């Protein structure tokens, strides 16, 4: 089984420019583990200090929000396309758009 994972431009500085990867993960937790294994620098951008997926990271499967498909229980199917989308919000915060911290080492 193969799932195509598309990574946002904002993450590509942590993926050596890779825009996508092929995965054999069967669900979202396995996929996140695989992304972090392939690109360790993304772990801080995908998960918070407690190990949970950051609230502003969204996953879409075939253009549908995975939360409406069962979230972590959704079983990927061969040929699924997964988009990793970090939410972007406006405002005047001087916080990092990745980790939410005012002072970080993301850059």
Question: Which helices and strands occur, and which strands form pairs?
Answer:
Layout: E1 3-6, E2 20-23, H1 28-38, H2 43-46, E3 57-61, E4 64-65, E5 81-86
Parallel strand pairs: 1-5
Antiparallel strand pairs: 1-2, 3-4, 3-5
What does this structure look like?
Strand 3 (57-61) and strand 4 form a beta hairpin. The radius of gyration is 14 Å and the shape is globular. Helices cover 14% and strands 20% of the residues. The mean pLDDT is 86. Strands 2-1-5-3-4 form a five-stranded mixed sheet, covered by helices on one side. The chain has helices at 28-38, 43-46, and strands spanning 3-6, 20-23, 57-61, 64-65, 81-86.
List its salient traits:
alpha+beta; five-stranded mixed sheet; 20% strand; globular
What would you say about this model in short?
With 107 residues, this protein is of the alpha+beta class. The chain contains two helices and five strands.
């Amino acid at each position: 089984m193969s799932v195509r994972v598309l990574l946002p431009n904002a993450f590509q500085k942590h993926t050596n420019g890779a825009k996508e990867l092929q995965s054999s993960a069967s669900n979202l937790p396995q996929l996140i583990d695989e992304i972090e294994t392939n690109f360790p620098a993304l772990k801080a951008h995908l998960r918070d200090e407690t190990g949970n997926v950051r609230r502003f990271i969204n996953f879409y499967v075939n253009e549908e929000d995975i939360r409406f498909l069962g979230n972590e229980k959704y079983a990927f199917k061969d040929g699924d396309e997964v988009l990793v989308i970090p939410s972007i919000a406006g405002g005047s915060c001087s916080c990092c758009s990745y980790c939410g911290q005012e002072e970080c080492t993301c850059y």
